[in-house]
């Protein structure tokens, strides 16, 4: 494949600091996420969301990646999603039978519904201000994409019969 994505860690504690001339930023009691992407080109199109900042007292971390993947002269849509609630890790991946029930993407909002045999995850992302980020195109960093770090993710996890789990 031209691009691969992996999750190394989500929801781990942070400790330490970064010092700049005249300023030190503390990361003690922070909550971290580490992911990786590799390959020679990014997908034709993708949506990527990650958060580990939820309501006070909620020990949760979330990642969703949906991409249009080029493959042997054609393309297909693939995704991976994980919700770690502190007590349970919920996996939303194509290879485990999860289906992408719906996806709507506008200038201000992304709405996604993922479903498997037992649970449904409703995702609503209010986009924040974006900046340009360079991305690879056949090993050349010539594609500009828009990325935001101040969006707002709203999640609702239910059982198939509608009982709210998160």
Percent of residues in beta strands? over 45%
Shape: globular
The level of helicity is under 10%
Element-level helix/strand string = EEEEEEEEEEEEEE
* Rg measurement, Å: 17 Å
Tell me about the biggest sheet?
4 strands, antiparallel
Structural class: mainly beta
Distance between the termini: 34 Å
**How many helices in DSSP terms?**
0
- Low-confidence parts: none
Neighbour order of strands in the largest sheet: 5-6-7-8
Protein architecture, described:
With 166 residues, this protein is mainly beta. It has no helices and 14 strands. The chain has strands spanning 3-14, 17-20, 23-26, 30-39, 45-51, 61-71, 74-84, 89-93, 99-105, 109-115, 119-126, 131-137, 140-147, 152-159. Strands 5-6-7-8 form a four-stranded antiparallel beta sheet, with no helix packed on it. Strands 9-10-11-14 form a four-stranded antiparallel beta sheet, with no helix packed on it. The radius of gyration is 17 Å and the shape is globular. The two termini are 34 Å apart.
Provide a concise account of the structure shown:
This protein is mostly beta strands. 0% of the residues lie in helices and 66% in strands.
Keyword list:
four-stranded antiparallel beta sheet, mainly beta, 166 residues
List strands and helices in order, with pairings.
Layout: E1 3-14, E2 17-20, E3 23-26, E4 30-39, E5 45-51, E6 61-71, E7 74-84, E8 89-93, E9 99-105, E10 109-115, E11 119-126, E12 131-137, E13 140-147, E14 152-159
Antiparallel strand pairs: 1-4, 2-3, 5-6, 6-7, 7-8, 9-10, 10-11, 11-14, 12-13
